[in-house]
Design a protein that fits this description.
By secondary structure, the chain is mainly alpha-helical. Helix content is about 80%, strand content about 5%. The protein has 11 helices and 2 strands; from the N terminus they run ββααααααααααα. A two-stranded antiparallel sheet has the order 1-2. A hairpin with a 2-residue loop joins β1 and β2. α10 packs across α11. The chain is globular and about 75 Å long. The N and C termini lie far apart (about 65 Å).
Length: about 325
């Protein structure tokens, strides 16, 4: 006799049939059962409600960003192309992953008869939730990485403006989630792969986080170097144009730092929680994973409003878009 077990992490939902008498107390099957049957079930329900509420601002905000960029009311650069790709990913996260995640966990929290009467439907919802969430979050991380590298290349007078570089960037972003999704598919069939899958999550995030940090550090170094050159030579914009427009690029760097800070706040807690879960399955660790999910999905809702706040061209384009809609 089998029963459905489920545990959802930011990049994965665990949906599988498991035997009632498991021989491995540390297996992720039992880990899943403990989550659903533990007192933390109320926490799952609460986080599901919050994530459902976050879906609307993610869809609306990213739709506005996409409409603003595609309307071409300002000069579009390679950065805007990458930004639009990130907005598409966040839009799909709010449209697909968040509603499916919320509905699945609301069903598990309050509607046990529904699970018993329609187990196949619940399993399908779980698989859609897991694959969509993990695919989109991985694409988000890859896009953020490419965006940081693009800013670094731009500041060093190299960029992704040539078509072949844009194609290479798109290929990297789309191929990045594939190996992990393969491991995820194997884990759905064989629980022994869950441990490997969690390690892959940590490795992917750590690799991208290091690249983002390295790129932004180099951007800071470029700005700092130009500042020192201007101070040493006494060049002023009143008498000659410096190598770069420092005021403009300082603001650009500040914007990138805000994006990096938001990215860190939203994704680091989950990654740390997953790493700790490989060592212990304590209730506190499972609760930390549930709470960190809210931050992960929150990023899709906050990103578009950060762009509107920090990017003048996006803000002006949005004002023009809204004005045209009113007329």
């Amino acid at each position: 006799m089998h029963h459905l077990s489920c545990a959802m992490s930011v990049n994965t939902s665990h949906y599988m049939f498991t035997k009632q008498n498991s021989t491995s107390p540390r297996s992720f099957d039992n880990f899943s059962d403990q989550i659903l049957d533990s007192p933390g079930n109320g926490l799952i329900f609460s986080t599901a409600v919050v994530i459902a509420l976050l879906s609307a601002p993610a869809v609306v905000g990213n739709a506005l960003i996409l409409a603003t960029i595609w309307r071409r009311t300002f000069l579009r650069t390679s950065f805007h192309s990458i930004l639009s790709g990130l907005a598409v990913t966040d839009f799909l996260t709010g449209l697909i992953s968040q509603p499916f995640y919320a509905s699945l966990h609301l069903i598990h929290g309050k509607n046990a008869p529904v699970i018993q009467d329609n187990p196949e439907v619940v399993i399908v919802i779980g698989i859609i939730t897991g694959f969509s969430a993990y695919l989109l979050v991985n694409i988000t991380i890859a896009t953020m990485t490419v965006m940081s590298v693009e800013r670094w290349l731009h500041m060093s007078r190299r960029s992704l403006t040539t078509s072949h570089r844009r194609y290479y960037a798109a290929i990297v972003i789309l191929l990045f989630p594939i190996p992990s999704l393969v491991v995820y598919s194997l884990a759905l069939k064989e629980p022994a792969f869950w441990n490997t899958f969690f390690k892959v999550i940590i490795a992917n995030f750590s690799f991208c986080y290091l690249i983002i940090s390295f790129a932004y550090f180099n951007v800071y170094q470029i700005i700092r170097r130009h500042q020192l050159q201007i101070q040493a030579t006494g060049i002023s914009q009143n008498f000659g144009q410096p190598a770069i427009d420092l005021a403009k690029y300082k603001k650009s760097v500040e914007t990138m730092l805000y994006i990096f800070l938001l990215f860190s706040i939203c994704f680091l807690p989950f990654t740390v929680s997953i790493a700790v879960s490989l060592i212990t399955t304590a209730e506190l660790t499972r609760s930390a994973i549930k709470l960190s999910l809210v931050l992960v999905f929150l990023s899709s809702s906050l990103n578009p409003w950060l762009y509107i706040w920090r990017m003048r061209d996006i803000r002006r384009g949005l004002k023009q878009l809204l004005a045209s809609l009113r007329t």
